[in-house]
């Protein structure tokens, strides 16, 4: 190979590396902790009480100790099988780092000492839990719990995009629980 080709190749690689954006650490590479529900096992059917066919209240959730340095937690529940793209069912932020459960039917503004957890907007445009309600077939409902090294500065009824933007670069750990529900 000629020196000219090698020089061109080296220059191209330097340029390409400089212009390629750095990627965030994938969630699967982060330290994890467990997220469970006494209402359903991982991969199992979500009981009707927690869906649009029942009381439509949030299921009870529990988790193990998050990574050291955690300042707050964020919970996002989504349906990736929705026909129009991922459907956001629930966004919860300002969960204090020392809390290990969310009780069944938890309400927006629930206080833990001096901190009130807040619900962000779901895909229905409401700051509320919206239970599984698939139009057809079996859908997967993914509960993701994030441990953050900050308490994000977010307004009431923040949208998922704003919550995710505030979390960027501050995720210490991650946990996931998946349940299913059918039409």
Any overview of this molecule?
- The chain contains two helices and ten strands; from the N terminus they run αβββββββββαβ.
- The chain is α+β, with helices and mostly antiparallel strands.
- The chain has a single domain, classed as Phosphatidylethanolamine-binding Protein (Alpha-Beta Complex).
- The strands form three sheets. It has a five-stranded antiparallel β-sheet, with helices on one face. The protein has a three-stranded antiparallel β-sheet with strand order 1-2-5, with no helix packed on it. The chain has a two-stranded antiparallel ribbon with strand order 6-7.
- Strand 3 (72-79) and strand 4 form a beta hairpin.
- The chain is globular and about 40 Å long.
- The termini are far apart.
- Mean pLDDT is 88; it is low at 6-25.
Strand order of the largest sheet: 8-4-3-9-10
Cα-to-Cα separation, first versus last residue: 63 Å
Please indicate the count of domains.
1
Rounded mean pLDDT score: 88
- The helix count comes to 2
- Looking at the overall shape, the CATH architecture is Alpha-Beta Complex
> What is the CATH fold-level name?
Phosphatidylethanolamine-binding Protein
Question: Helix coverage percent of residues?
Answer: 10-25%
Number of strands: 10
Please identify which CATH superfamily we are dealing with: PEBP-like
Order of helices and strands: HEEEEEEEEEHE
Q: Which regions contain 5 or more consecutive residues with pLDDT less than 50?
A: 6-25
Shape: globular
Structural class: alpha+beta
Computed Rg: 20 Å
Characterize the largest beta sheet: strand count, sense, and whether it forms a barrel.
Answer: 5 strands, antiparallel
Portion in beta strands: 25-35%
């Amino acid at each position: 190979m000629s020196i000219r080709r090698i020089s061109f190749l080296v220059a191209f690689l330097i340029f390409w590396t400089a212009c390629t954006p750095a990627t965030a650490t994938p969630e699967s590479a982060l330290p994890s902790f467990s997220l469970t529900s006494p209402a359903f096992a991982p991969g199992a059917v979500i009981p009707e009480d927690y869906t649009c066919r029942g009381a439509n209240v949030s299921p009870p959730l529990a988790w193990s100790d998050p990574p050291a340095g955690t300042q707050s937690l964020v919970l996002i529940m989504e349906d990736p099988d929705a026909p129009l793209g991922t459907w956001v069912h629930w966004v919860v932020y300002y969960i204090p780092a020392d809390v290990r459960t969310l009780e069944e039917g938890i309400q927006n503004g629930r206080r833990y000492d001096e901190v009130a957890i807040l619900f962000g907007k779901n895909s229905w445009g409401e700051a509320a839990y919206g239970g599984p309600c698939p139009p057809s077939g079996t859908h997967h409902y993914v509960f993701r719990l994030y441990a953050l090294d900050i308490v994000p500065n977010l307004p009431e009824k923040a949208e998922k995009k704003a919550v995710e933007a505030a979390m960027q670069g501050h995720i210490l750990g991650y946990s996931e629980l998946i349940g299913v529900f059918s039409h």
